[in-house]
Design brief:
By secondary structure, this protein is an alpha+beta fold. It contains two helices and 13 strands, in the order H-E-E-E-E-E-E-E-E-E-E-H-E-E-E. The chain folds into two domains: 113 residues, Type IV secretion system, VirB10/TraB/TrbI (Lipocalin, Beta Barrel), CATH 2.40.128; 48 residues. It starts with a helix and ends with a strand.
């Protein structure tokens, strides 16, 4: 009987030892560490005076374009600061027409001016201030002088054939009048930039990117 009691006591001790939790359990492997926040790229400043080369996406001219009208252009050469390309080739720029004026019938020149306003990069829009690029038509003076002078000369020749010296004077006056009318009939001069024209601008203020 005593032997059975001792055996049962030993079994109880063994069971108790087997169910005792370990004091120092190893930590589970592969524990997750807090994710590091992504580092922000340092800002780069494009200095004033940087040259921008863009190609027009559409035609602009004094016949159809009005002052204040918007246009788009594509960057033809990347903008590089130091050894870093900060604005890649192909970036779209936006601008507007600063001046659009047709010439007069007999004098003056047509003038078209444009400037850049902004561009988008990596989902962010950047405002810029640039110089203006412009184009002017040829003046009327030389061409109209040829038309008027030519008309007077032709009129004088025809008048001389018709009635001698007096006829020459009359013919010259009539020819000059006809030449002037012909010059006026040529209409106003037009200035413009065809699509794909390469335009060059300069930054007037630095841009932080």
């Amino acid at each position: 009987m005593l032997t059975k009691v001792m055996a049962l006591s030993a079994m109880v001790v063994l069971i108790s030892c087997g169910t005792k939790p370990a004091d120092n359990q190893p930590e589970p492997t592969g524990a997750q560490t807090p994710a590091e926040s992504p580092k922000m790229a340092p800002e780069v400043t494009v200095p004033a005076g940087t040259t921008l080369h863009v190609r027009l996406d559409q035609t602009l001219d004094t016949q159809r374009s009005r002052t204040g009208e918007d246009f788009t252009a594509t960057l033809a050469e990347p903008i590089v600061v130091g050894d870093q390309t900060v604005v890649p080739q192909g970036t779209e720029f936006r601008g507007h027409v600063t001046a659009s004026g047709a010439s007069g019938r007999l004098k003056g020149r047509a003038v078209l001016g444009v400037t850049l306003d902004s561009f988008d990069l990596k989902g962010k829009s950047y405002r810029i201030e640039t110089s203006a690029d412009s184009r002017a038509s040829a003046g009327h003076k030389k061409r109209n002088g040829l038309l008027i002078g030519g008309g007077a000369g032709l009129g004088a020749a025809l008048g001389a054939l018709a009635g001698g010296g007096k006829g020459a004077l009359i013919g010259a006056g009539a020819g000059a009048a006809a030449g002037t009318a012909g010059a006026a009939a040529t209409g106003k001069e037009n200035a413009g930039f065809p699509a794909e024209t390469l335009l060059t601008f300069s930054l007037r203020a630095p841009v932080r990117i």
